[in-house]
User: What shape does this take?
Amino acid sequence: MAEVSLPRLTRILVASRIRAQLQYRASFAADLFGQAMLIPLEFIEVYALLHAAPVFGGLTLNQATLLFGLSSLAFGLADMVFGQLDNVHRLIKEGRLEVLLTRPTPLLLQLVTQDIQLRRLGRAGVGLAIYLWAIGACHVEPTVRNLALLVLAPLGGVLIHGAVFLFASATLFFVLDGQQAVNAFTYGGRYASGLPGAALMTPVKIFFSYVVPATLIAYVPTVVLTGGTLPAFWWPGWAWLTVPLGLAMWAVMLGWWRLAIRHYTGAGG
Assistant: This one.
């Protein structure tokens, strides 16, 4: 049998998962709708804060909407591709990880492709709609610089969120019952990325800027795109560094992942 290349194998695995989910269209549509409805419910918090006060964390309602849409789009895409990585502790506890380790396909590829949830497109789709609407509402000038940033910011957000998911998954090899602790990085980062960074308490601001760079995903690009002024805590040039930063984080986290795999001694399966 001819050897299948890794890119082709990835396409085959992803296509099979997608076909499986589309077999039950009514169930898929219901799941998609449920995920889509989460975003308006989460946005109510932002609207309530800015309905009571015209400016929150230095942002108006339209600016905060742009930030929220960008954050939701980036996390929705990252969650769809990498969100299943945080289930690795269950595979370890149930002794099923050994089955994946015996296969010739890289473990990370198997974990990423084994449970791609298309229903999470609902979150990303609504986030994209809010993002596009807010771009017009904020009157973002269609310059080459702004258009480039409008595309690069979500891409950088996907890379950063994905790297955090990988960090959380690798950490669970060392701290098997540390799911709640690593959620502070993954889902805590999602929540922080959707809020104006200037409104966060100083310790939280430091953590989600310099440990988990969540405020760089949407807050800094939003202020730069809308012509606002960032507090001294942030530098406007950071808006352009999300993609390089995301790639650097992936390089580091892949090393952490390889260390975690070498550390794993099995669960007796």
